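Recall that a protein's primary structure is simply its ordered list of amino acids. Everything else, from secondary elements to tertiary packing, is in principle encoded there. The following example makes that idea concrete.
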Amino acid sequence: KVTSSTSCKVTSSISCKITSSISCKVTSSTSCKVTSSTSCKVTSSISCKVTSSISCKVTSSTSCKVTLSTSCKVTSSTSCKVTSSISCKVTSSISCKVTSSTSCKVTSSISCKVTSSISCKVTSSISCKVTSSTSCKVTSSTSCKVTSSTSCKVTSSTSCKVTSSTSCKVTSSTSCKVTSSTNCKVTSSTSFISGFTFFAESYDNIIQRFRNGETINILIGIYRKSQS
């Protein structure tokens, strides 16, 4: 269900299989993009709900694009077969087109309901499978981007909520797994201290002298090794 959203199109180029319904709900978010370059599989998780949002895109180079529009278009590039009903219901929208050219199979109903929305596009290029999805909610977020170059898998996630986040970017080159994260920041800092050596008494002796109230003088020797 899409309520007061913008830009939703469904397009698949090769072998797009969708099983047990995709319910994409978009609520009060802005520019949510998911991009993966190779083999993006989502299993027992996707039910992305976004309300009153603008341009929700799910994009992968060998997988899936989901966009919303007035003119809900379903397009596949080769031999499109539709089984057990595509019930596209559009309320106060314009022009619902279905175009097929090569091997697009849709099973157990895609019920696309659009209410006062504009331009809904779903695009997948190679082997997009979605199975038994569950409640991923994004609420009042801004520019959330997830990008992975190879084998991005999200498996059996439940109720992934991102609330009032701003510009959350996750980028990985291989095997990117994301599970129910909120405002995740990773900062890798490295500090090097070299050329210092610490000379002192044994730990037990120092502790005992502290307990006795003694004043302890600790000598720190600083040296630099020559190249020879």
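The mean pLDDT is 43. The CA atoms of residues 135 and 159 lie 5 Å apart.
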